[in-house]
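Anyone up for a design puzzle?
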């Protein structure tokens, strides 16, 4: 069962001045250009530790440099350790065009580590070896978890957030910054023992689904095992836990956005008579109107059908629609588990990409013929400009579908979910050295 503990977090002191200059997005969404820009933004920006630039002569030296930087910040009072164990109530206010303004709520704490499939923590995607090696080297060098992962726990009432809100008694946030994307981040330090214990009790026995940070979770597991191999077996040791932001499944600001697909590098003959080929599987309707009209038609699907939007190289717009849910998916994708084959993205990959366009699963995963778009407008532009041959617009996966696949033990297709906004790195760090304990 999920066990959450408060932690003795490391946080930036007032010495840094403008807090917005020292935080960053998670390392795995930072481009090379942004990495350089964040280093230049402030001498204490968290990327100097979490995602430092490789030294030209010795790539491995960056981990030692990160350790030295972190230690100097602590000794200079740039980072201060919490005097009392705390949970960190966290709100993100953001706007999505065409949808409105939302506030996602949750808290940052320490979650006891469990191997996937052996307890109450569930993944939804596969991980790669290379990022885990990098994160583990950094963790061993700094003995610190520098960036929280993102988890969702099953609670439609969002009681934990309400408990923490009451404990705040209307006081001002300890952190209040707006990032480069216009997202407002506010965080409050909560040390009230009664409130913390109520939150822990509320989450006891709940399931936790990893939304973002699978590599960092598995890195924390590897670090825990490494510590145990070196004789550190105290169950209260901080290395038995992972730094995590937790949001309730019933939180109104918890949104899953879709990741759309663009196709390129397809032989011209494959695109000839494409509508006719697609009509063997779908009801194909040409859209009279602009992109927005197609988006509305895709969104207005009935529960018993799949709808996928398509813009071709001529700029024509179509809606691909199936009927007979779930029999269509059973017939076309019988080799996939029911929880996975009934997703729109599975229909797109298995029927449109593989059967109609002849794109192999390897070509999808490698990006050889498929490009992924979080921003639909970028996809619409690229197909108009001839950078891609086809653009496919998808509905988002629902929270119920996300949880169903996670509980089944199966994996979602690559880049199915997009949880926005990202959790900032640098709000709070989690010391996990030999002497560190949870609260």
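Challenge accepted. My sequence:
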């Amino acid at each position: 069962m999920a066990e959450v503990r408060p932690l003795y977090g490391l946080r930036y002191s007032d010495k840094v001045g403008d807090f917005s200059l020292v935080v960053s997005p998670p390392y795995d969404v930072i481009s090379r250009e942004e990495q350089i820009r964040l280093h230049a933004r402030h001498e204490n920006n968290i990327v100097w530790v979490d995602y430092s630039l490789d030294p030209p002569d010795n790539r491995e030296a960056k981990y030692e440099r990160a350790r030295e930087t972190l230690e100097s910040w602590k000794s200079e009072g740039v980072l201060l350790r919490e005097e009392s164990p705390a949970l960190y109530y966290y709100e993100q206010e953001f706007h999505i065009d065409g949808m409105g303004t939302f506030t996602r709520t949750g808290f940052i704490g320490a979650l006891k580590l469990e191997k996937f499939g052996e307890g109450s923590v569930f993944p939804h995607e596969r991980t790669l070896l290379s990022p885990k090696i990098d994160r583990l080297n950094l963790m061993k060098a700094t003995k610190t978890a520098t960036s929280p992962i993102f988890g969702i726990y099953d609670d439609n009432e969002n009681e934990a957030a309400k408990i923490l809100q009451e404990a705040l008694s209307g006081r001002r946030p300890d952190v209040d910054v707006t990032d480069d994307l216009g997202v407002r981040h506010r965080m409050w330090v909560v040390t009230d023992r009664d409130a913390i214990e109520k939150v822990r009790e509320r989450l006891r026995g709940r399931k936790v689904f990893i939304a973002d940070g699978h590599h960092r979770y598995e890195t924390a597991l590897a670090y825990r095992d490494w510590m145990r191999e070196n004789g550190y077996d105290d169950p209260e040791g901080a290395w038995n836990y992972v730094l995590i932001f937790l949001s309730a499944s019933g939180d109104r600001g918890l949104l899953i956005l879709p990741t759309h697909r663009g196709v390129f590098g397809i032989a011209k003959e494959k695109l000839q008579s494409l509508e006719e080929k697609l009509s063997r599987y779908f009801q194909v309707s040409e859209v009279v109107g602009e992109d927005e009209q197609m988006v509305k038609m895709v969104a207005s699907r009935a529960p018993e059908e799949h709808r996928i939007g398509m813009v071709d190289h001529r700029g024509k717009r179509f809606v691909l629609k199936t009927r007979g849910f779930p029999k269509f998916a059973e017939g076309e994708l019988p080799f996939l588990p029911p929880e996975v084959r009934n997703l729109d993205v599975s229909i797109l990959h298995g029927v449109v990409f593989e059967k109609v366009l002849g794109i192999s699963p390897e070509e999808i995963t490698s990006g050889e013929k498929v490009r992924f778009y979080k921003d639909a407008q970028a996809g619409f532009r690229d197909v108009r400009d001839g950078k891609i041959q086809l653009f496919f617009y998808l509905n988002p996966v629902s929270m119920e579908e996300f949880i169903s696949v996670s509980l089944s033990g199966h994996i979602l297709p690559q880049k199915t979910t997009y949880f926005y906004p990202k959790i900032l790195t640098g709000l709070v760090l989690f010391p996990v050295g030999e002497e560190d304990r949870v609260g």
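A detail worth pointing out: DSSP finds 16 helices and 21 strands in the chain.
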